[in-house]
Amino acid sequence: MEIGILIVGILAGIMSGLFGIGGGIIMVPTLIAIFGMGMLNANATSLAAMLLPVGILGVITYYKAGYINVRNALWISLGLLSGSFFGAELALSVDVKVLSKLYAAFLLYVAIGYLDIPKLLRGKNYKKVEKPVPGENIHYAFWVFICLGICAGVIAGLFGKGGGLVIVPILIKFFRYDAKAASATSLAALQLPVGLPSVIVYAQAGYLNWLYAGLMALGILFGVFFGTKLAIKLPAATFKKVYAFFLLGVAVYMVYKYI
Q1: Rounded alpha-carbon distances, angstroms, from residue 197 to 99, 202, 249
Q2: Cα distance between the two ends of the chain
Q3: Is the pTM of this model over 0.85?
Q4: Where along the chain do its domains lie?
Q5: For residue range 8-17, what is the model confidence (pLDDT) as tens digits?
């Protein structure tokens, strides 16, 4: 069983490096469906696995390629730290079905935009404004990144996953980030122990398995490196389409799980 948990961590790490997410979207459903964990136990174990900077090898690779704005990533981390506490508290006290459907609707909206469906519907003459590529050259007021982090932190604490799934699309849609720069900055923001408040809440409630969390953290450490290498090699247009189909899959899962 421990080997299986390690493999789950490796797969989650590959997805983290590729899409700038924490990996919980892989870990949580797998722990529930294959290893028989309850949702809150899976949430807690997933969040604990991401406490250490397990994606640091991927962050270094992205940084060398010029995709990370360190300043913005730090502000997002600050917001994540506060938001994750409230998300975990909500998870222990409310029915998440409605929230999960809204979350799925948001992911569907973003995925449709990435697939350029509006362009197909409007015809060949539709021209789309290109987004700037270098994330390190994009500057906004610090408080907007903190707000983004808080929003993502609430989602992460609530579902045990999804911080990066909020950060990346918003950076692209509203902050004019290139897809790779958004993924890189998101991954960098997740390297600080931003999920610690939610992990403490879950642990105090008796939902945390430290052994499984440690094994998955080890798997993520190695998986992120390969996922990042793959992301950098993919052409930008291909990267966005791959990410769009990934979001569609996540949205379908969220609706199916909480319907």
Answers
A1: 21, 9, 29
A2: 30
A3: no
A4: 2-258
A5: 999 999 988 8
